[in-house]
Amino acid sequence: MPSSTVAPDAGRIGEGRTAAPIARRRRRLLLGFAGAALLLVVLSVLSLMVGARTIAPADVLHALTHYSRSDPNALVVVDSRLPRTLLGIAAGLGLGLAGTVMQGLSRNPLADPGILGVNFGASLAVVVAIAFLGVTAPSGYIWFAFAGAALASALVYAVSSLGREGATPVKLALAGAAVSAALGSLITAVELTSRVSLDAMRFWQVGSLAGRGFGVLLQVLPTLALGAVIALALGRLLNGLALGDDVARGLGQRVGVSRGLSGVAVVLLCGSATAAVGPIAFAGLIVPHIARRVVGADYRWILAYSALLAPSLLLGCDIIGRVVAPPGELQVGVVLAFVGAPVFIALVRRRRTVAL
């Protein structure tokens, strides 16, 4: 009789002690997520304000709510900076989620869009379109870039799937490096035979948010949104893959399906972002590490944080590029390389870097 009265109380005490840390952790993660969202909002407003001509917040709001072609502030804010800001948010979200999925898929902390040949595939398709088809506008070659990214990623995955083990992380990385090297050689060969393609590719390959209008954003938005939905739904699957294929299978997970869905998400996200703004490095590489240090090893939270931190990083670097070299500006790909390289080196050198 005493045991029947004491045991329930002991169980409730144990449950309370277990639930309290979980509740505190969830509250902390939600507060951090809200802070990341606030940071993105602040940087978005700064992106509309800062440039060769600084515009006050009140004037930005007036330009957005009372657009008029006779108002010079409205022309700058709505016609130039607004599509640039929205494209930065969209491309950053795509690169951040894609980098997170790629690192979880390959269990490789150095995974980025280059591991599946996305950048080189998109670049080759663009240079071919420019050199042989006469396509020079971003709105014209964007679909070539997307198709090239998708085909290169499919080729890498097909090559790495050969053999009994399937697409293991090591085979995926090796196949990606081999395909990227081959495509890079083809890009150089085409550029050396076409001066027009060389001039056009210089501005696309550096990675830039400038000069892209609403048309480019609308073209990539459907595939980018679909890729983001798939990626955000992969949290539990990536948690299983992080334990190893054998353990994931033992837990009832269909590893082949998980890898296939991850590959589709990567192609959609990387292909869309790369086609729109060019091959921007480091955004998909360092952001998952930053998110992982904040939230731990749970990919559900890593994906959510990366979806906010990567656009913030991209917009922040774009804003810096506008003000460091007046009256001109540095493209976001150049600034991100300067900012991202030291940050990533510091991350990988720290002893407490969270393992995948």
Structure description:
- The relative contact order is 0.15.
- The protein is 78% helix and 0% strand.
- The chain is built from 14 helices and no strands.
- The model is unreliable at 1-7 and 351-355 (pLDDT under 50).
- It is mainly alpha-helical.
- Helix 5 packs antiparallel against helix 6 (169-193) and helix 12 packs across helix 14.
- The longest helix has 48 residues, at 2-49.
- It has one domain: ABC transporter involved in vitamin B12 uptake, BtuC.
- The chain is globular and about 65 Å long.
- The termini are far apart.
Oligomer: single chain
Distance between the termini: 49 Å
* Helical residue percent band: over 70%
Parts with pLDDT < 50 across at least 5 consecutive residues: 1-7, 351-355
**How many β strands by DSSP?**
0
| Level-1 CATH class name | Mainly Alpha
CATH topology: ABC transporter involved in vitamin B12 uptake, BtuC
